[in-house]
């Protein structure tokens, strides 16, 4: 078989990255829809009369289908129907759910409190039924295109799109809604619709790739190894494996302390630390926007030149050029910060915008830590460190009252949110055989949804309980609801130690670099 005969669409790197962008639309928009309500919590109280418990109920019920096996059913469907049909069906369910929530928020099903709440929930249940399966479809599709190429990088970038969706949804929903809930929900739902159109475009290339690969295998007589189908006996075998059990439970406790927290973080910053939720005036937006675009473009041009300069052979072998380059980069960065300082100050004063820095930061930190785990290992130890940072973060945001310590708390939460996923997900691939990975991830996500359900709802209900008698609009006390999350951090540390100990016995090499296995 000559190389020319073997060439398919996936052998072109431009094609692979273009496919990743088409696919990542679904990741971006579903993460946006999952998290955008966080920036609107106060408004949902004042405009729609939703209590914290009702806010929590909306979020919690998003997970309900996944708690009862939707991810596993979706995985089985994906195996049976293939990427295209599964993506369209589950992406379509997410769009339908988004549309129902948007119509409900606009008063289409009735403008009384009960109709709005119930129909937003119906929409969220449908959306949630599609959400996790869409993530599985995206992962499977990335493997299809990137196996043998930059697979880990492609997965990290896809996850980056998801985090960007979370960050932008949290930061911008209030501005998009212009002070109302309904336009922000409509916008978020429209994004999933647009992403589904991007996925439909993707399917054209997917069909072409399948045809090319079939032609190649028909000619060569090669038969691919089929993935093993899901069996309940696999689940039992997985759960009996101590390392898997500990990492799956860690996934529950760790994410329970992060995802639900992020939904309440803007409201916490406003209520506890006096952050603002005021919208800027139109004139100010234009001024900041032009300043930010101008400064960012100058900075980008500097970097394009720097990169061009760096790729010229031998430029970096000279110590003096290296020093000049580093000083230039530092001066450009200081200049950038100077121009952006007003915008940063306003950004860091706003509850939703500051909270959005948590997922935004992970886009930079996760690949750095992922690279560290690949090269140096220490995955179990990094999970211990991530859990420690989680405890510090939640203590600084609950019992301590200092806004500067709170900024450090948010920073350490961002680092923990990058460290643990970067160490956790590749570790599962060391513990579980490749043809059982689908079952392993589906099991972990299912358990994770149980934790999310409990804490999405629990934090809201606890918030109402400890703030009984405090009228709407008055600051709420978040101490106890966030202190509960410190407990999740302690359980996470305990599980990380158990995992490290079990790994020493079972020899999966979680502390070793990836390429040594
Ligand atoms: N934000 C909702 C999507 C969750 C997707 C999935 N269950 C998950 O946990 N992915 C890993 C991650 O760190 O986002």
From TrEMBL:
Keyword set, alphabetical order: Lysosome, Membrane, Transmembrane, Transmembrane helix, Transport
Q: Where in the cell is it found?
A: Lysosome membrane
Under Pfam families, the record lists: MFS_1
Which reaction(s) are listed as its catalytic activity? Answer: L-lysyl-L-alpha-amino acid(out) = L-lysyl-L-alpha-amino acid(in); L-aspartyl-L-lysine(out) = L-aspartyl-L-lysine(in); L-lysyl-L-lysine(out) = L-lysyl-L-lysine(in); L-arginyl-glycine(out) = L-arginyl-glycine(in)
Q: Name one GO cellular component term.
A: lysosomal membrane
User: Any transmembrane segments, and where?
Assistant: 14-33, 58-78, 85-110, 116-139, 151-172, 184-205, 244-265, 285-311, 323-348, 354-373, 380-399, 405-425, 437-458, 478-499
Q: How does it sit in the membrane?
A: Multi-pass membrane protein
* MF-aspect GO terms: transmembrane transporter activity
Q: Which family does it belong to?
A: Belongs to the major facilitator superfamily.
Q: Which function does this protein serve?
A: Lysosomal dipeptide uniporter that selectively exports lysine, arginine or histidine-containing dipeptides with a net positive charge from the lysosome lumen into the cytosol. Could play a role in a specific type of protein O-glycosylation indirectly regulating macrophages migration and tissue invasion. Also essential for liver homeostasis.
Q: How does it assemble?
A: Homodimer. Interacts with lysosomal protein GLMP (via lumenal domain); the interaction starts while both proteins are still in the endoplasmic reticulum and is required for stabilization of MFSD1 in lysosomes but has no direct effect on its targeting to lysosomes or transporter activity.
Q: What is this protein called?
A: Lysosomal dipeptide transporter MFSD1
Q: What organism is this sequence from?
A: Labilibaculum antarcticum
């Amino acid at each position: 078989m000559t190389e020319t005969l073997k060439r398919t669409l996936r052998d072109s790197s431009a094609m692979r990255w273009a496919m990743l962008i088409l696919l990542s639309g679904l990741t971006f928009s579903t993460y946006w829809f999952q998290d955008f309500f966080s920036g609107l919590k106060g408004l949902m109280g004042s405009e729609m009369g939703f209590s914290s418990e009702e806010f929590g109920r909306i979020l919690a019920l998003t997970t309900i289908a996944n708690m009862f096996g939707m991810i596993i059913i979706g995985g089985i469907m994906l195996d049976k129907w293939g990427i295209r049909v599964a993506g369209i069906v589950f992406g379509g369910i997410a769009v339908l759910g988004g549309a129902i929530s948007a119509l409900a928020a606009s008063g289409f099903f009735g403008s009384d409190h009960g109709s709005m709440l119930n129909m937003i929930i119906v929409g969220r249940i449908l959306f949630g039924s599609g959400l996790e399966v869409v993530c599985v479809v995206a992962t499977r599709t990335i493997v299809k295109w990137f196996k043998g190429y930059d697979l880990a990088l492609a997965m990290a970038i896809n996850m980056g799109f998801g985090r960007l969706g979370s960050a932008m949804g949290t930061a911008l929903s209030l501005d998009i809604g212009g002070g109302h809930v309904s336009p922000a929900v409509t916008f978020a739902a429209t994004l999933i619709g647009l992403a589904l159109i991007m996925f439909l475009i993707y399917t054209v290339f997917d069909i072409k790739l399948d045809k090319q690969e079939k032609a190649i295998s028909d000619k060569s007589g090669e038969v691919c190894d089929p993935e093993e189908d899901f069996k309940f006996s696999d689940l039992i075998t997985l759960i009996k494996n101590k390392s898997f059990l500990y990492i799956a439970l860690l996934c529950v406790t760790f994410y329970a302390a992060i995802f639900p927290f992020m939904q309440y973080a803007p409201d916490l910053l406003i209520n506890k630390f006096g952050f603002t939720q005021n919208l800027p005036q139109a004139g100010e937006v234009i001024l900041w926007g032009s300043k930010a675009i101008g400064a960012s473009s100058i900075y980008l041009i500097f970097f394009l030149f720097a990169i061009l300069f760096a790729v010229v052979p031998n430029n970096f072998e000279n110590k003096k050029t290296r020093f000049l380059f580093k000083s230039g980069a530092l001066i450009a960065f200081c200049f950038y910060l100077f121009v952006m300082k007003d915008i940063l100050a306003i950004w860091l004063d706003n509850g939703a915008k500051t909270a959005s820095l948590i997922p935004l930061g992970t886009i930079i930190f996760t690949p750095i830590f992922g690279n560290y785990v690949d090269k140096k290992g220490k995955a179990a130890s990094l999970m211990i460190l991530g859990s420690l940072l989680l405890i510090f973060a939640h203590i600084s945001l609950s019992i301590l009252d200092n806004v500067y310590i709170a900024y450090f708390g948010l920073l350490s939460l961002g680092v923990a949110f990058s460290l643990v996923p970067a160490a956790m997900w590749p570790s599962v691939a060391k513990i579980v055989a490749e043809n059982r990975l689908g079952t392993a991830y589906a099991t972990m996500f299912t358990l994770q949804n149980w934790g999310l359900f409990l804490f999405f709802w629990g934090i809201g209900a606890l918030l109402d309980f400890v703030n009984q008698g405090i009228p709407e609009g008055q600051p709420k006390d978040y101490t106890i609801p966030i202190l509960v999350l410190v407990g999740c951090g302690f359980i996470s540390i305990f599980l990380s130690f158990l995992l490290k100990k079990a790994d020493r016995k079972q020899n999966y090499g979680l502390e070793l670099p990836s390429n040594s296995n």
